[in-house]
Amino acid sequence: MESQSRRGLLKNAAKAAVVATGGAALAGTAKAQVTGKLEKKSYPTKPASDPVPLFSSAVSYGNLLFLAGVGAHFQGTIEEHTKHVLDELEKNLIGSGSSMEKVLKVNVYLNDINDWAKMNTVYAGRWGKIPPVRTTIAPAGGIPGNSLVEIDLIAYI
Asked: Which of 93, 73, 89, 91 shows the shortest CA–CA distance to 81?
């Protein structure tokens, strides 16, 4: 038996995939599940004070909704900060036509990774039957604005 190169293995795998799918991917018969025209849309969460904002708080593309990070910029505990952030995110979701149950992905940024367990006590149960996937990190420089936690997310409308 002769030894195959990596390129040869990949070519054979591609041929096998074409056979297994009946060539649908290459024949152009596969179609994306898209209805209507996709467009980028912004959802202002508060009145605009600056003529040109630095970033959008909520933007959708198709039925995907992206919410910018929300922090808690006041003195308090990690539990108080987490509750405030989740309440604000929920308001933004509802104002954009979505809900906590429709959240797909969450990024949590903790000022101190040792707050992970306390943050989880407030975080748990806010997302409906199927919680979103989540990444939690503690950035080396901390959270801007002295917040103990910041959360951003992706949901659908």
From this structure: 73
Global model pTM greater than 0.70:
yes
Long-range pairs of 37-42 with CB within 8 A, sequence gap ≥ 24: 38/62
Alpha-carbon distance of 107 to 154, in angstroms, equals 9
Helix axes 78-95, 116-123, angle to 10 degrees: 40
d(CA 59, CA 48): 15
Residues 109-157: tens digit of each pLDDT: 999 999 999 999 999 999 999 999 999 999 999 998 999 999 999 999 9
CB 39 within 8 A of CB 32: no
